[in-house]
Amino acid sequence: MLSPEDAWSAIATEAETLGIEQVSRAAAVGRVLAEDLTATVDVPAHDVSAMDGFALGGDVDAGTVLPVDGIVAAGDPPGAELRPGAALRIMTGAPAPAGADRVIPIEQTEFGAAAAGTGTVRIVETVPAGSHIRRQAEVTAAGGPLLAVGELLTPGGAGVLATHGIHEAPVYRRPTVATLSTGDEIVPAEAEPGPGQLRDSHRDFLRAALSQLGIEARSLGIARDDPVELRAKVERGLDSDVLLISGGVSMGEFDFVEQVLGDTGLGCRFLFDAVAIQPGKPLVAARHDRGWVFGLPGNPASAMVTYWLLVRPLLRRMTGLADGFWQGALRGRLKGGLPFAKGRDRFLPCRLEFSSGEVLVDPRPPLGSHDLVAYGAGAGLVRVPKFSAPAAVGESCEVLPL
After folding, report:
1. Domains identified in the chain, total number
2. Which residue range forms the structural domain that includes residue 195?
3. SS3 for 108?
4. Within a domain: residue 325?
5. What is the pTM of this model?
6. Domain check: are 231 and 255 in the same one?
7. 113 and 85 share a domain?
8. CA nearest neighbour of 223 among 249, 245, 208, 202
9. Which of 278, 256, 252, 261 lies closest to 344 in space, CA to CA?
């Protein structure tokens, strides 16, 4: 049985990004760039004013009154000229006139009719040369670097692409994921369960969790506890990049997932079949020539924990993001005590508060690995290392926000 770190190492060794696809700017938001992007234009395209005010040429003492020869607005073509000893009214974003070496903000002047580009302006406070002028190409230069491979495109990044007339972006393809629930006792969430039956919570949990990554899950429904039916559905799922099977991976008489995946005709190669965590010990990970298969535990909380700790980091890696087991965990301070752990690391649901620069962790100890409510309401997982003693209120802990 592997430690969670070793289980992740076995996964990470074989984790790879998928192919590259071109998508629209809007569709690229939240995706990872697969290639470097180059600036197509200078930004700014020419020297422009950074303030509403007056363009000046050379040093001007406070109290000086200058004639105003006109006005330059944003959108005007470059080419205006400032004659010596005069000023030009100028707007933010307007091209700096030839002969101007600074812009004085309007708040540092007394201007009267000069606001309309006529009359005179009195300088109240001086500004040094270069003030409030944005230089051509100071943000980006045409042909220079714009956005780098591996960057997550944000809404702001979409604006950058629009500025440069880039309508599509190369991004890593998101994995296709199929989900399959198992068990004679499982019925669809929309159905009314009979005696001894349970609604399928796994499908909706996985569908929602995958949607957070921008992945639309394909449901294969529910497979009964029959190896022939299970194999048929598994074969359908193997055309996806990742197949997530829930249930049927423990030691029961009707747990057939490992048996089916071990059939030589499916071409699966096991990485591991158990991880030293609680909940979530019976986790199966396998590879085949087209992708990945995970057999998640049937207990809902166990399925959640194994997904958060080991499956989600893989999916993020496949889309080009840097991630790993327990990556993104924070140090926090306990608002409630933690129980001891025996031979496996425990991961308990908790609520989080962010106060005065620290993370306050309020553990919500579950009734067991079947306690979907406790884990479903948790905002994070707090780690209780194996063989650790109970922890008291105020002690430090590690927590992974979800």
Report:
1. 4
2. 4-16+174-318
3. helix
4. no
5. 0.88
6. yes
7. yes
8. 245
9. 278
Helix (H) / strand (E) containing 242: strand 242-246
Q: Are residues 259 and 377 in the same domain?
A: no
- Tokens (6 digits) for 283: 């986790």
Question: Which is nearest to 188 in space by CA: 230, 221, 234?
Answer: 221
Q: In the chain, how long is the greatest CA-to-CA distance?
A: 96
Q: Which of 109, 134, 159 is the last residue of a domain?
A: 134
Residues 160 and 36 in one domain: yes
Q: What pLDDT tens digit does each residue of the chain (402 aa) get?
A: 999 999 999 999 999 999 999 999 999 999 999 999 999 999 999 999 999 999 999 999 999 999 999 999 999 999 999 999 999 999 999 999 999 999 999 999 998 776 677 889 999 999 999 999 999 999 999 999 999 999 999 999 999 999 999 999 999 999 999 999 999 999 999 999 999 998 999 999 999 999 999 999 999 999 999 999 999 999 999 999 999 999 988 776 767 899 999 987 899 999 999 999 999 999 999 999 989 999 999 999 999 999 999 999 999 999 999 999 999 999 999 999 999 888 999 999 999 999 989 999 999 988 777 788 889 989 999 999 999 999 999 999 999 999
